[in-house]
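Q: I have 450 residues here and want to know how they pack in 3D. Can you give me a structure?
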Amino acid sequence: MNMMFLQEIFNNITQRDALLRRRNPEALTPDHEHLVSACQALLASDGEASSIALASRALAIYQRLSSAEKASFFARLASDFAADATQIDEAYTAYSEARDNYTLQALFEACEPRRQELFRRLNLARDGTYELVKMREDLLGLLREQPDLEPIDDDFAHLFGSWFNRGFLMLKRIDWNTPASVLEKIIRYEAVHEIQDWNDLRRRLDARDRRCFAFFHPAIGDEPLIFVEVALHKGLPSRIQPILMGEENGDDPEDDDTAAFFGISNCQTGLRGISFGNFLIKQVVQELSQELPQLKYFVTLSPVPGFAQWLTEQREDEQWPETLRNTLGELETPDWHHDAVREERLKTIIRPLAARYLVEAKNAKGLPLNPVARFHLGNGAELHRINWLGDISSKGVKQAAGLMVNYLYVLDDIERNHENYTAKGTVACSNEVRDLARRARKLAKGETAK
């Protein structure tokens, strides 16, 4: 049977169900009990057509719930749609006696929470995948105050890891000819360097030395998952303002030997933690290498969020030399970076401290504190250079004392760097960065850094 014909039938079922809901006044003000009942009915359904209609109804009810009712629904997901402890015990007893593949499979099935099957069935609805991504976004907003909901997030992450597998992702180049509906989303989702207006967007997309690529998923249509902005450059760039202003590096494109990734934005909060950024960078490198074989270097020009906060915390550490802490206090002076003497004094100590922060400051898992560093180092990049006053915007000065960083992707080293980082937490870095970190250790001891 023609698949388009089947899809039309299913869409008609969904639309008819929506019409029936509009005629039912009780359904206009649902609470989480309505949704729980709809989910139970969906799990009890056997037919595919009826399951599509039930999934559509359940998602429509969820969309109309208040924030408090959504929280109550997640609580019910945690309790009413968990795995059955009795079934797990029985399945484990059977496996411990037989120890064969049949009883092992039965144990796996018993251990799976019922909500995973519920999510699979909700995914049958039209736009079900996107609605589930939005549902997880709501859940993530609750986890800080309600950590007991984390098992639900684990279920979402487990399923999304399969649904958003690299094999399903489509890489598309974004340019000025891309449909306006997508370009509007690029403006809205840009998370690193805000796009001011359509003229700003055109500078970033239409210039001969710019590229932009995004990953899409067939189940989510024209909603980008993640996108990267690229500037072609002669040599490694150290400052973001010339790039954002669209200043040209030269008249001949053949002079460009570097592709600089200066903005990587995750578009869907509900897909946080689902890793496809590394696939994006690697595929973009392949695309650019084929289009522009003269390119030799693939680097980022990355922000350092959290560094200024880390510096503030170090200033409060009385074990640090008083002179060092006093100098750091000059960061509180308005427009300090416009004072040449003060700026040079701060540069002498802040670049080494940045190297220490990025290379040596670790979280509870033994990984770098900085999230951008974790992303690129985990992808196999090298911490290559720390750029003083790389971003002199108010945001750049406030979050990182104006610093930006180049992470270098050397194709022959990516796998080794990734393995060392994953297995040992090793931060691959250049000799220049290593020397800066060594100076920082001397500064912390009150020694002169040379």
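Q: Anything worth noting?
A: Residues 3-23 form the longest helix (21 residues). Confidence is low (pLDDT under 50) at residues 1-6, 18-23.
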